What we know:
This protein is α+β, with helices and mostly antiparallel strands. The chain has helices at about 5-15, 20-35, 90-100, 180-190; strands at about 45-55, 60-65, 75, 75-80, 105, 120-130, 140-150, 165-170. This is 8-oxo-dGTP pyrophosphatase MutT (NUDIX family).
Amino acid sequence: MTALHTDATAALNDWAPADPDQQALRRDYLAHLAERPDGLFKACLPAHITASALVVDPAAGRVLLTLHPKVGLWLQMGGHCEPVDGTLGAAALREAVEESGITGLTLLSADGASGGRPVPVKLDRHEVHCTGKDQPANTHLDVQYVALAPAGAVEQISEESLDLRWFGYDELPELTDGSVRRLVALARELVD
């Protein structure tokens, strides 16, 4: 087992969501990791763990979303784990920094602040074609975090996005799915 696998298992074991559906997903993710030592990497098919982070500017009451080129929806930052990621939180933070262009992001920890051990906020299982349009769909087992933006943070679009924009909590764009809306609502509760 890699350090990343060990950390992901510990992070999911330590997280105790109140929602029964999230508890069921957590058990499914843990079963996946128990069965698959490679379960965090894109090559693991038909499913693999991914990590994402919703970038939040609590002082301004807004979130940063990316218009995903393959999906055509406004989403949080995120993607595949890499062998260089020491922890699942580090993978989510790396993706958030890469896709937002914002340095100084910190993940929300168990005590609702930044700087402690990051904890997941939500899990989301969804079908994607990350191995290519002509390949069968596979499943992302996404572990979602909240990343706090420093005051005055300025985003910079990357080649991974069609667009990148800040939205007020109550002003999410039409092309935002229910999963992202629930993530924003959870983040708002945690940071307000």
